[in-house]
Amino acid sequence: QKEVEQDPGPLSVPEGAIVSLNCTYSNSAFQYFMWYRQYSRKGPELLMYTYSSGNKEDGRFTAQVDKSSKYISLFIRDSQPSDSATYLCAMSAPGAGNNRKLIWGLGTSLAVNP
Amino acid sequence: ETGVTQTPRHLVMGMTNKKSLKCEQHLGHNAMYWYKQSAKKPLELMFVYSLEERVENNSVPSRFSPECPNSSHLFLHLHTLQPEDSALYLCASSLQTTAGETQYFGPGTRLLVL
Asked: A56 pLDDT band (50/70/90 cuts)?
């Protein structure tokens, strides 16, 4: 079993739709959860960062962490064509050595159609 | 120039060539990373440097040789590569290497090995 599972898609939605992107994980020690967005021909950029459980909202984006289910989500409201990108989840555990290493999902390719 | 820059952006090389990838960060960070991004695989961490000392080497073949002359510059020296080494090579930096630290990525070098 992979440490982090993420459906690579592709996911295609019409403009204005609510998008839900998800990752599941197996390591209960993970405490730091991140969503990165990667446009074509660019490097990943941090979009949302959550420590431990709960929700975090930033504009049209909401990140949720459910540690009991080992499941994280990214919601995009009123999606725009400019949101078309690959969304990667990443997570790590506290501590030193290998624990602190970021573990990445495969990334989900999203296309928002005008 | 701001953020993390990488040169060249594209590179085609034969299996007997020697080339180097360059990364520079203008963020005042102390840690730098090399990642490999291949299709249908999660980001693979290759090397980590903290204050110019290599702190991680994730079983990377010796045909990849990193160099970190100072905290702003990182190189990846390539020699006798294989076609399966074709990928996007991403450089990243962070303030430190502690758990949960946000990593900032460059645009990557797209490498094709013939």
From this structure: very high
